[in-house]
Every structure is written in C-alpha cells, then in structure tokens.
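WARN no homologs supplied; continuing
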Amino acid sequence: MVGDKVITGIPRAWKVPAVLAAAVLALSWRAPVVMANHRAAFDGTMHTYGEMVDYPLTFPVAGPATFRDTFYSARGTGQHHAQDLMAQKMVPVVAAGSGTVRYINWSRDRDDLNPDRCCTMVIAHDDGWETWYLHLNNDTPGTDDGQGWGIAPGITIGTRVDAGELIGWVGDSGNAENTSPHLHFELYDPEDVIVNPYDALKAAQAPSTDALIVAALPDGLGLVDPAQGRWYLGGATAETGLFYFGNPGDLPMSGDWDCDGIDTPGMYRVSDGYVYLRNSNSQGAADLRFYFGNPGDLPIAGDFDGDGCDTVSIYRPSEGRVFIINVLGSDDRGLGPAEFSYYFGVPGDKPFVGDFDGDGIETIGLHRESTGFVYFRNSHTQGVADNDFFFGIPGDRLIAGDWDHDGIDSPGVYRPADITFYLRYTNTQGNADELHTVGARGWLPIAGAFG
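OK structure emitted
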C-alpha cells in the first residue's frame, strides 16, 4: 500500500561528496507531518496531503449536524486529518458513497470483528476512494454503558452498500468517550492520500439531510421541529413529506380534517389560543382556524364518533377531564360547547388518542409519567381504565397507531433522550416490537396516514 515504504538512506549508486550531501539534505529536509493515527503524511500524484477536494459525497449523518474545519487541529502529538460531525447520539450514519465494507473495528476478518474495539468502519468506494467512520455508537440506547453494537444489522466485512444506506449511529466510542457524540470522518484518494473533505461535506450537507430524515421515517410516523415549524412525514417523498407549517412554539397534531382519508397538519398556538388546520401536506396558510378552550387545555385530535372525520377536542389536565366536540370550529370563532364530557385520569396525565379495540371509534389514552403506566378506555364514558400496563419512561412522548396493520391501535413513544421511536404491536406490557432512530432532541412526534 502506498505510504508504507519509508526511505531510510541514499542509494549506493548515487555517490556525492559527504559535505555536498549534507548541504543538500540540510536544504531539503523538513520534519514529517505526524497524524493522529501515527502514520506519516505523504503526497501523491493526484493530491497532496490535506488538499481540499470537491469529491461528491452523500452527507454521512442523517440528521442535524454541525462541524467546522478541524483537519489540521491538534490531536495528541499529531494532526486530526479528519472532520468531526457533531450530532446527538443515535442519529443515523449512512454511507457517504457506494462501495464495499473493507474494515470493521480495524479487522478484515468477518469472523472476528474485534467487538472490544467497537465501533469503526472503512468503506472502499467503487472508484477507488475510501471513507472512514469512527466513534460509532457502542452504548445500549439511552445509556452510556459501552455494551452496545454500533454497526447496523446486516453490515459486515465484504457487504456491498449504496450511498445513503444506514451503516451505524453517531456515538462516542473509542477515545471519544469523554467528548460530545460525533462522527469522525476521513477521506482517502485512490493513492491512499488523506485529503480534506470539509468543502465536500459542506456541499453535501444542505440538500440531503432533510430528505434523509424523511426517508428514515416509516409510513405512519412523523416528526415536527417546533423551533422552526418544520414537518417531516414518513411514507412520503421529500417533496410531499417535508414542509413548513406553523410558528416556533406551536403544538403539532395531525388529523383527517376534510374526511378524505389523509391526515394533514394541525397546530395549537399557545400564544393566541387558536388552532390552525391545513387540508394538504404542503406549505401554506391554514385552511381553517378557530379559538380553542381555556389556557392550559391540551388539544386531542381524532375520530371520536366513527364518522370518518377527525375533530379537535379538549383534555383539561388541571381537572383530569375530557371534553368531546365532534365538529370543527368555525373560522375565527370558538369550538362551541362540548357534546359531552367525562373525568379520566389525574392532574398531570398526558393524553393521546387511538382506536384501541378496533371498533372504528378513537378514544383517549393517558400516560402517567410518575409511574410509567399507560391507561385507556374503549368508550367515551366515565369509569376506570379498560386496560393499563407499563410502557415508557418519564420524558417519553406518547402516540398511538396501527403499527402492525391489524386494525387495532397500540402505543408508541418517541424518546428524546436517544431520539428513538419505540413501537409496541399489542396493548400489553412488554418490550418494543419496532424501533426507529431519527430526528433530534426537542422534536415532537405525530402519527397518521399521511398519504
């Protein structure tokens, strides 16, 4: 491999006077650059060490990431020769180019992947370039225990990967344990010269990150960035599943407001007490707006009478009381009186909505963070819960959906601590049946049939 050969002396056939030789060496010698991986830097015929290149890349972090040019930054006694893409732990890492996995954890033996050196990867691109991925997650999700495995399922030495394909997750493995989570990313040209990928990464980042988030969301799940009013809807293309709606701080919901079978955005604006609804998954002004409830009330959206149309009703946490309204408010007017109300839960419970028995009518579920229990009723009547079980932890954000397409909704949570959806297929206590890591802390989950 180029770069493994080191010239240690002058060839015997080249005979020059000792004094002249010393003078030549004194004029031409310079201290070699030492890199953080302890290899000596060298130039090639295509590029010089550290040369800024415009090599086409897919941005390797499929989520929000920040970075500055740290190629020449000091690392120990050497130079960094890489870019650190700072992101939250468990943000997906994808292949920056199509090729074949060459190393995992510095091993080329697929029967011995050096789990004690988890988690790194090298991908040899089809055109002879290489990309290196270091500090992939090695923790059990939600912990910092170093007991996890940061390589995506099905990926091993010799695996063929396409640009944009999931290969692992951002973490803090190796010597990054005491730093913020990030992806250490290196780029090598076909002559094994390390080049600076900073400009290439900047060029790749802007157009691809949002689309990758949409692609990572399965059908029926969505995320909203409340700081920007940015919506990401699973099961849709970047054109139909990615748009702005609402203002910073709005509370998102989704529902079939016009009874066409497709769930579209809704927002509750705490600052003015209004609900804003849109009838298409696209950027634009609200199609309907109306005043909502009392300060502190929470909107709950669903088909509460089985007529195929979703409406916005009220959960009042201060009383543990549900107010059901089966018509939408008139434009710029209030919701009107509730058709009926009932008490369910205790102050502080957090509501979610689902059809938990498959009868076509959505009812109210509650998550009690103090105990981690889920409670729901199968009818809009006052009484004890028809079912309760432990699911989730404090800080989880509850949603419900028909994750396994059996006609019955069951709970899911979005856990901001590890930006992961945990979905359960049955309304029983147990571990999640399906996991999806995507998004960012502070983002809010939604569920629905988005088209």
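The chain has two domains: 18-210, 217-447.
OK
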